Input
Amino acid sequence: MEKAIEVKGLQKSYKKLHVLKGVDFEVEKGNIFALLGSNGAGKTTIVKILTTLLRSDGGTTAVNGFDVASKPDNVRQSISLTGQFAAVDDILTGRENLIMIAKLRHVTNPHQVAADLLKRFGLTAAADRRVSTYSGGMRRRIDISMSLIGKPQLIFLDEPTTGLDPEARIEVWNTVKELAANGTTVFLTTQMLDEAEQLADQIAILHEGRIIANGTLAELKKLFPPVKVEYVEKQPTLEDIFLAIIGNKEEK
Amino acid sequence: METTKKHFFSDMGVMLGRSMHHVFRSMDTIITVTVTPIAMMLLFVYVLGGAIQTGTDNYVNYLLPGILLMAIASGISYTAYRLFMDMQSGIFERFNSMPIARSAALWGHVLTSLVSNTISVVVIILVAFIMGFRSSAGVLSWLAVAGILALFTLALTWIAVIAGLSAKSVDGVGAFSYPIIFLPFISSAFVPTDSMPLGVRAFAENQPVTSIVDSIRALLSGQPVGNDIWVALAWCVGIMVVAYFFAMRAYKRRV
Output
């Protein structure tokens, strides 16, 4: 299998704070990879290093076969980043945001690309409104759609569903699944375990500067003692109730 | 590397287009950089002007250069603000993780400053014409005025870039511009310096605004500019070079 990401012995410190103490992992092309960890574990630091925003202090990192430190331009050609804070221009409209990125990616028909993405993400009606008037879910959708322009092989999503309501979260999940179905590799960070469970082909847990577990959900489950069978009445969670009342979009 | 260089100017053009949208969609910006200087000009000409002795019979002619400098000084504070807001939001991270030259985003802001200040300067000059401003300057003198104003704008823009990159809060980001906006008051912009007490006069005659105002005024009225223009150019170029150096250093540290 070809590797989309190869990380060996990655080190990073902020002044005295040793955040990454030798991180190793690989991501296969076409997979959804979830990096789990609590707040401050260093997930965003890893994303920033892999997306050329931050220099590592040690170790090697390669993205789509290019060394991140020595070939940042090749890396930037083949990736897209949807950061933790929506990377959208509030003063521009949704359409203008997409056209701007399309022009910067030098695609042949920026207006057509923008129109297609607006349609795909159900934003056509809001296309000519300023992004500052969008809801949290709409902002995330325009943010992610901006990352799809130019068809990058690898997309980084740093906590893509933080701060979203359950409906918007499911929308994002569906988008991620769709991307992977079309062959895009997705690297996502999250602190929500059910998100990783829902989406990821491969899950790694970052804790105290190292990857302490890495594998498929089934492999991770094997780390625990065999399942003891108990009969528990399945109560609906509040999320089930909430979604049932407002018309569960996942069912669609 | 090759592709980012090849597209540098078109990328910068996209960045320019983006922040010009920001300028035209911000009522606050338009009011501060154009309406306020025009209001100042009306105030000085029609309210205070009658009592000010400048030795010329056309006070608009006397006043215009100083008003233009004030407009530019308030204009560049918005450059600092826009840059600061970009650093705060995730948009710079997106740009920096894309295959575009890292300096394209910064130059986009610098160009926006030049273009938007040019627009407000032109609007203010047109209003001044309506108020009775007249100039005997030829094409070359007008070009010289445009050149001095462009250099002045660039010099202040690089100061604004330092402020935008190093400010800790949105309140702090515009603060640097107030002393600059105030400098024309303690210069020959509104009244001749020989009417001022000795200490103030010494400051007024040796600070950059006076030499810039005097050169522009001389150029516009067809008088000989003398040494003033070289002093003015030295100030502008000197400030620009020093500010550019520190701005670039701050920028490299941030990205």
